[in-house]
Amino acid sequence: MKFIETLKLALAAIWAHKLRSALTLLGMIVGVTAFVVVVSLIEGFNRYVDEKIAGIGAKSFTVQRFNPLEDFKDTDTIAAAQRRNKELTLDDYDYLRERAQLIGKIGARARGTPSEVKRGDEVLEDVFVSGATANCVDIENRDVAEGRFLAEPENESAARVAYIGADVANKLFPSGNSIGQEITIRGLPYRVIGVEAAKGTVFGIPQDTFIVIPLKTYSVNYGGLIRQRSLYFIATSITDEQFNDAVDESRFLMRVRRKLGPNEKDNFGIVTPDAITGLRDRIFGTIFIVAIAVPGIALIVGAIVIMNIMLVSVTERTKEIGIRKSLGARQMDILKQFLVEAVTLAIIGGAVGIFLAWVVGAIVTWWFFPTYLSILAILGALAASGGAGVASGIFPAWKAARLDPIEALRAD
Amino acid sequence: MSDATVTLSPTENVINAPATEVDGHDPSMLISMRDIWKTYQMGTEKVHALHGVSFDIPRGEYIAIIGPSGSGKSTLMNLIGCLDTPTQGQYWLNGKNVSEMDDDELARIRNQEVGFVFQTFNLLARATALHNVELPLIYGGVSASQRHEMAKQALTAVDLTDRMSHKPNELSGGQRQRVAIARALVNHPSILLADEPTGALDSHTSAEIMDLFERLHSEGNTIIVVTHEHDIAERAHRVISIRDGMIEKDERIR
C-alpha cells in the first residue's frame, strides 16, 4: 500500500471525527504553542542583544569602578568591593590614554542622573542626563540625526551645550528646529547642538528620553564624578585582533597605577562584550531548560491523550480492521494506517501550535518585546510533535495490526 | 499442466495413491483439503471443531457447504478463506500449500485468490461503493487509474453503474450485497466465498442475489456458499453437509 493512500486514509479518519480530533489535540497545541513562544522570546532577546553589541560598532570594553559579574554576587562582596574599589578619576583616564599602546580610542563617561528639563511652559521630568567626552560619539556609534555631537573644546571649557534624544526634541520642539535653541536643565540654561536619531522602545522602555552634556559640565553642575555619577572609560582596540590584548594591557596598566601585588584581586572592573554575552548565555541557559521542560510536560500529556484516543479508535474500528484484513491488508498496512493517523494528528496539532505561537509572537513584538520565530524552532516543534505522534501511535497501531481477522470481523 | 508435474515426480506416482495425486494432493483441483483438523483449547479441554476433513473442489464448480450452527462450517469457511490455518492437515489452494503460511502470506492469498461475501455485507460505512470495491486493489498495489477502471467494471457487472458514488447507508440491502459481490470479484479471485449471503435479505432480494450467483457461475467463477438454509444450498450443483466437524454427506445434486 502506497504512502499517499495511507495518508489520505489518515486525513479522512481525522476529518470524520473533527470535534474529537480537535479536542484530542488541545494538549499538543498548548504544548507546542508554549514551546515556540518561549523559544521566540529567547531568540528575539538574543538577537536584540547581539544587534546592540554589533551596533556599538567596533568592539569596545569599559573600565569602571566595579566588576558587576564579580562584585555584585551578594551583599558581602558588594560591601568588600565598596571598601576596596576607589572611584576612577580623570587622572586615571589621562594615565591610560598616555600609556596604552593597543587602545584605539578611549572616552570618559559618567553615569547619568534623572533631571527636570524645561523649555518655556513645557516640562519633562526624569530625563536621563549624562556626561561624555567628545570622542564617545564614535566609540558608542551614535547616530546623529540633526546638528552634531559635543566637541572637545566644549568639554574643556565646561560649556553648557546639550545633545538630546529624539523624544526630548519632539516634546520640547514639536515644530522642529531645535538646533541652537535654549533649554533649561535643572534650572540652568543649555544650548541644543544636536539631536540623535530615534531608537524606539525596548521592553516597553523608551530609548530616546536622554540628554548628553560635556563630561566637565556634568561634573561641575551635578556635584562631582562620584557614586551614582561614577566615572568610567569606554575604549576600543586599534584592530579587532588586538582586542583581548588591549583589554589585558588596560588591566595591567590599572594594576600598576593602583600598585596591586601579584596575588591581589583587581580593585576596578573591566567589562567586555564577551562577559556580557557569557552572562546572558548563563542566565538563558537556565531559563531555556525550564522553558523547554514546561511545554515538554504539556507535550507528553498531549501524547498520552492521543494514545488514549487512538486506542479508543482501534477498538471502535475493529470491524473495519477485520474487513481490511479479509480483503488482503497485511499487518504492516494496518500498522501504518494507524501510525500515520496518529502522527498526522500530532503534526496537525504541532502546525496549529506553531501558527498560534507566530500570532502570539507578532502581538508581543508589536506590543513591547522583540521576538523571533526561527526556522529551527519551527522544525524543532514539528519534530517534537511528530515524535510525540510516533510515541503515542505505535502501541495502538501495533494492537490493531495484531488483531485476528476472524475475531475482528465478528466485532460490532 | 498436471501431466508435466506427474512426470517430474514419478516416484510419488507409484505409491498407492490415485493416478493424479502429487505431493499428497490433486494438482488439477482448485481446492484440495487433506485430513484437516482444527482444535481449540477451551480452558483445560480441547475442542475439535474439525475432525479430519478431506475434499476436492475443481475449478468452476458451484458448491454449497451446509450444516447447523456449531457444526464446524464456519471454521471450515475461515480455513477455505485463508483467514485461519488448520491445526493439522494440508490445504492446497490453486496449487499453493496455504496450511503453513504466516499471517502476511495469508493476507496476500486472501487478496489475490479469495473474494469474500459476508452475511452483513461488511462494507466500510464512510466510503462510497466505488471506494469499497477499490479496497482489495489498493492492498494489491494496483495504480489509482487502473483501480478506478477495474472497480467501475465490477460494479457494472452487478448492475450498479448508477450507484457508484453512493455510500452504503444510501443503498438497499440487495444493492449493498451486490457492492460486496463486486468487491469480491474485482481482483478476479480463484474462489468466491459467500458466508450466508442472503441471511440479512428478504426473500425477493435473496432470489435476486442467488440469480446473480448463478450468472457468475455460468461465467466461469468458482463459487462456494456457506449456509444453513436448504433452499439456498439447493441452488448449488454440489452440497457438502457438515455435522460435528465431519463431512456427513458430499453429493452432486445437478
Explained architecture:
- The complex is a heterodimer of chains A (412) and B (254).
- Chain A is of the alpha+beta class and 412 residues long.
- Chain A has helices at 3-16, 18-55, 68-71, 75-84, 90-99, 136-139, 152-156, 166-172, 215-222, 243-257, 273-316, 318-326, 331-367, 375-401, 405-410, and strands at residues 60-64, 103-119, 122-132, 144-147, 161-164, 182-185, 188-196, 201-202, 205-206, 210-214, 231-237, 269-271.
- In chain A, 58% of the residues lie in helices and 18% in strands.
- In chain A, strand 6 and strand 7 form a beta hairpin.
- Chain B has a domain at 58-84 and 107-252: Rossmann fold, CATH 3.40.50.
- In chain B, helix 5 (129-139) crosses helix 6 (144-157).
Overall geometric form of chain A: elongated
CATH class of the domain at 58-84 and 107-252 in chain B: Alpha Beta
Helix/strand order of chain B, N-terminal first: HHEEEHEEHEHHHEHEHEE
- Global structural class of chain B: alpha/beta
Quaternary: heterodimer
Percent helix range of chain B: 25-40%
Q: How is this structure best summarized?
A:
The complex is a heterodimer of chains A (412) and B (254). Chain A has 412 residues and is α+β, with helices and mostly antiparallel strands. Chain A has helices at 3-16, 18-55, 68-71, 75-84, 90-99, 136-139, 152-156, 166-172, 215-222, 243-257, 273-316, 318-326, 331-367, 375-401, 405-410, and strands at residues 60-64, 103-119, 122-132, 144-147, 161-164, 182-185, 188-196, 201-202, 205-206, 210-214, 231-237, 269-271.
